[in-house]
Specification:
- It is a single chain.
- The protein is mainly alpha-helical.
- It has a domain of 73 residues: Monooxygenase (Up-down Bundle).
- It is 86% helix and 0% strand.
- The protein has four helices and no strands.
- 10% of the residues are buried.
């Protein structure tokens, strides 16, 4: 019986360590996720050439981020809330830029 309890405690510690590692990495990976969207944002707004940019894809990314923000709010998960709020801002400006620069004025 003692061995079973010890094995269970060790297993819980290992899960706890892995969970802590993921928790600590969440904000870093979230920042990377947002950062990889920024070059597209800069390109859309500086070059104003949106011919190679997919509006459907960016609207899809934007809507996906809206979903995950709602999920994070419902579950009170700060990393999910923080990352998706930032993604909504960046992706929203990309979508806005595509609309703005694809219309001939």
């Amino acid at each position: 019986m003692h061995h079973a309890i010890h094995r269970h405690a060790h297993k819980n510690r290992a899960k706890s360590t892995l969970l802590q590692l993921f928790d600590r990495s969440a904000y870093l990976m979230g920042a990377v996720t947002v950062a990889v969207n920024v070059p597209q944002l800069i390109t859309v707004w500086t070059s104003r050439d949106v011919s190679g940019v997919s509006l459907v894809s960016w609207i899809g990314f934007f809507l996906g981020s809206c979903f995950w923000l709602c999920y994070g709010l419902l579950h009170r998960e700060k990393p999910i809330i923080t990352v998706n709020a930032a993604l909504i801002a960046v992706q929203g400006f990309i979508v806005l830029g595509i609309f703005r620069h694809s219309v001939s004025l």
